[in-house]
Amino acid sequence: MTVDSITRKYEPRRVIPKAERQATSAMIASLDAEGYDTVPAPFGHALVEEARRNDRIVGLSADLSKYTDLHIFANEMPDRFYQMGMAEQVLFSAAAGLAREGFVPFATTYAVFASRRAYDFIAMAIVEEMLPVKMVCALPGLSTGYGPSHQATEDLAIFRGLPHLTIVDPCDACDVQGMVPQIAADPGPVYARLPRGKVPSVLTRHKPDYKFELGKAQMIREGTDVLVVSTGFMTMRALDAAEILAKDGIEVAVLHTPTIKPLDTDTILAEAGKGGRLVVTAENHTIMGGLGEAVARTLMCAGVTPAFRNIALPDKFLEAGALPTLHDMYGISRDRVVEQIRGWL
Amino acid sequence: MATSPQQAGAIPNMSLELRAWNIRRKALRMGEVQGQGYIGQALGIADVLAASYFHALNHRPDDPEWEDRDRFCLSIGHYAIALYAVLMEAGILPEEELETYGMDDSRMPMSGMASYTPGMEITGGSLGHGLGIAVGMAMGLKRKQSDAFVYNLMSDGECGEGSTWEAAASAVQWKLDNLICLVDFNDQQADGKTTAALARVPEEGKWAAFGWHAQRVDGNDLEAVVAALDTARNADHEGPRVIIFDTTMCKGVDFLEDREITHFVRVEPDEWQKALDVLEEGKPQ
Q1: What interface predicted TM-score (ipTM) does this complex get?
Q2: Contacts of A92 in chain B (CB under 8 A)
Q3: Domains and CATH numbers, chain B
Q4: Are A202 and A49 in contact (CB under 8 A)?
């Protein structure tokens, strides 16, 4: 029998003039700090500090300790670190076993590998059993230019379906530093998206007394025209966009929602329910199944129906390229946030 | 006449043959209650369970959460009927609950659930999970300087799961000499023979190549099972240990043994009593 294999057609890609070209940001690179001060490896340092207080904490990684800032912990406390090799299924199963024996394992890898490859193990060995494993995963959403193999654009959608899993999407170094002791103290399983490398300090510049509180959404900026409900680094984009829009007399409030599950519905309803403001959600995640849909459900079920829009990644496998280019292309750069909000008013 | 749980576990000097027979009988009675169940596997693994709980394992029936106990992970959740039988025989579960097997509100669901059942260490059933969890437990026990062992009971078919081999490599890397993996090799999985699926190469060679201390014995020969468990615990080997047990599905009930063996052995409603009668005839003295 004669069967022809599938043939592919390669379209020519855009040719960008040399002067405008940007290199694909390396995997190791941090998110562009964009004018903010940065803190090196806040997760690794915060974990070391917490582990000094809590000797039940152990760390595990699947050959990505250097790329999840866990190497700081591994170097500082080598006898409490497990290099599990390139094996995400046993990474999370073994973390479950350690948790059963009374330890508090912090297990790290990339968000794509946790959510796609190890899902069954996370669901059954860890979450169904309510074990206190802390899964801290780098490269969430669109934070690498390597293309779909490394871009965890649907991790929140995947994990939101798991009962009693706490899900955190921190914005900056302050969030990460505040998050580590709080998730370590939480009795259940946690999935946290991880900004790693040189991580900007964003929130305290806009609100000097800001402190991360697990499960709480917090107003970072007040404003009368628009309420942005945002998570992860999109809070930084929303705050930056708000400063630009303020120059045009458009007052944008920003409600930072780093805990995706359980969602702080009381605060979201209180703020959205004030009325008179366009409500916009902003997330570094596909439009399917993330913060936008969670907030929409919250508002609809409570009978709170402001004008409502979403900023999120499209329902597509995204391109490879340089991050600033991709953020612009897919609508999550500062300027695209400004442009979208303006267009909706 | 049901034996009370305290008595069952406490009867001293009962032969392992009789323990295994009791396990088979309890499993058949649960099958009768529910009209179904993985009875072929339960009858096949009864000798291994008897030797595990009444010879090898260090445990306290009145305190299933005792910190120093040996852990026994049932990776093959569908073998729960067999584990309930041995948990009852050991006095960890009251025998009266046998009547509730697989019913609403029962502590004994058809597939093992850690949160339901005393003595059920993990929730197995999604095959390929148990060994990885056991690896983490063995690591944790070493961190605590505990002398306890972790046993993981899995199936031949489960060796097809890639996660099994991630865990197998990891156990060697971390020199987990407190981990003993028990593989029930009955050469039967859902769609047919395991040797016709992913077990063309002898299993013991795979495990040995990974660095495990590997044994393969007749899992229905109690003397051989006991000797293998002793060797596994005491072997001078710096890594984990595996025993592959060749077992016969439906062992002990000849007309079921002779039936065309499948993953889910069909037993007609009137055959449960017949099976119990056949078993009764073979009761060890």
Answers
A1: 0.93
A2: 132
A3: 5-281 (3.40.50.970)
A4: no
Query: Which residues of chain A neighbour B126 with C-beta distances below 8 Å?
Result: 120, 124
Report CB contact under 8 Å: A124, B129.
Answer: yes
| Residues 6+ away with beta carbon under 8 Å from A175 | A203, A212, A258
Contact at CB, B133 and A96, closer than 8 angstroms: yes
Q: Give the separation between CA A264 and CA B110, rounded to whole angstroms.
A: 38
In angstroms, the CA B150 to CA B181 distance is 8
The β-bridge partners of A218 are: A256
* Nearest partner of A127 among A102, A160, A151, A84, judged by Cα: A160
Domain A203-344 has CATH 3.40.50.920: yes
Query: What fold, for A38-200?
Result: Rossmann fold (3.40.50)
Task: Provide the token pair at B100.
Answer: 């509730």
Which residues of chain A make contact with B167, given a CB cutoff of 8 A?
89-90, 93-94
Residues of chain A within CATH 3.40.50.970 domain(s) are 38-200
Q: What is the pTM of this model?
A: 0.94
* Touching B: A residues 206-235, CB under 8 Å: none
Binary contact (A121, B138; C-beta < 8 A): no
Cβ(A212)–Cβ(A174) under 8 Å? yes
Q: SS3 for chain B, per residue?
A: CCCCHHHHHHCCCCCHHHHHHHHHHHHHHHHHHHCCCCHHHHHHHHHHHHHHHHHHCCCCCCCCCCCCCCEEEECCHHHHHHHHHHHHHCCCCCHHHHHHCCCCCCCCCCCCCCCCCCCCCCCCCCCCCHHHHHHHHHHHHHHCCCCCCEEEEEECHHHHCHHHHHHHHHHHHCCCCCEEEEEEECCCECCECHHHCCCCCCHHHHHHHHCCEEEEEECCCHHHHHHHHHHHHHCCCCCCEEEEEECCCCCCCHHHHCCCCCCCCCCCCCHHHHHHHHHHHCCCC
DSSP one-letter code for A78: G
pLDDT tens for the 285 residues of chain B, in order: 334 434 444 456 789 999 999 999 999 999 999 888 899 999 999 999 999 999 999 999 999 999 999 999 999 999 999 999 999 999 999 999 999 999 999 999 999 999 999 999 999 999 999 999 999 999 999 999 999 999 999 999 999 999 999 999 999 999 999 999 999 999 999 888 999 998 888 899 999 999 999 999 999 999 999 999 999 999 999 999 999 999 999 999 999 988 877 777 889 999 999 999 999 999 998
